């Protein structure tokens, strides 16, 4: 930096301001300094900056499954906000394992990331000793953790399920079932509880029909076939997430069953399937943005009490909610 200052006939402080994009440098001076930087090949030493500032300008996102479109959209939103603030994003997957999550968090903290956005793999206590000892700000997404209040961004699971049931009832369905995700997940249990509550509130006939995951193509086909053969058959199902929706669509074709359907989470090509699939849209991009903005507020010194934000869902109405007899089902072309 001293070499640049000498050749550009400015002070080292001026070079520092140019390199760090700080205000207070005339435009012609900035151009002269940058010309010297380019000519002699100067590069800022980020390691020295980290030691001086105590910040690495990096944040991390830990999700359950990087391949899941829901989490990839969260990741894209977090990365965009980080880039705007000149931070780099490190993304990792816990693969649904609390043990792996602990290892991942330890590795990220050892890298001295400035903050964390985490989709918790399990309902572990909020006072994770690794995170607590480091003092690293953390925001949880999609699922809460037990213990002391933490910054958390959730989806309105109850509202989403209610909108799905009410939509199907409006189309004349009365025997509605739920194909949920694995009950080990907090979101799956929340959607199951919401389904039971709205089923009772609307006075729908018969017992609630619920099948929680994990599912296999064989188990789903068998379950759907069984429900369709009851004396008063199930005429519509609500699925617990996008993966269950896709599995249910395959199972319906396999079992030769026609049912109304509302899927939780939108998914690619949902509008092109025949009939097109009605979904409860959670808006993962908004969820990710809300979480990372809260994280940056903490990094800027916000010491207000921890908050839990519940993001609204939106029903995207297509064709699959109709009674089966009113929906022309076309065979797939091989």
**Morphology:** elongated
Radius of gyration: 26 Å
Secondary structure class reads alpha/beta
In percent, how helical is the residue content?
40-55%
Which percent range describes the beta-strand content? 15-25%
- Distance between the ends: 66 Å
Characterize the largest beta sheet: strand count, sense, and whether it forms a barrel.
6 strands, parallel
Strand order of the largest sheet: 2-1-3-4-5-11
Q: Given the structure, what is the number of helices?
A: 12
**Can you give the mean pLDDT?**
89
Number of strands: 12
Helix-strand pattern: HHHHEHEHEHEEHEHEHEHEEHEE
Enumerate the spans where pLDDT stays under 50 for 5 or more consecutive residues.
326-334
What would you say this structure looks like, in words?
The protein is α/β, with parallel strands linked by helices. The chain has helices at 2-8, 12-19, 27-40, 46-53, 69-84, 98-110, 129-134, 157-170, 186-201, 217-228, 242-255, 284-299, and strands at residues 58-63, 88-93, 115-118, 138-141, 152-155, 176-182, 209-213, 236-239, 260-264, 278-281, 308-311, 314-316. The strands form 2 sheets. The protein has a 6-stranded parallel beta sheet, with helices on both faces. A 6-stranded mixed beta sheet has the order 7-6-8-9-10-12. Helix 11 links the parallel strand 8 (236-239) and strand 9. Helix 10 (217-228) crosses helix 11 (242-255). The longest helix has 16 residues, at 69-84. The N and C termini lie far apart (66 Å).
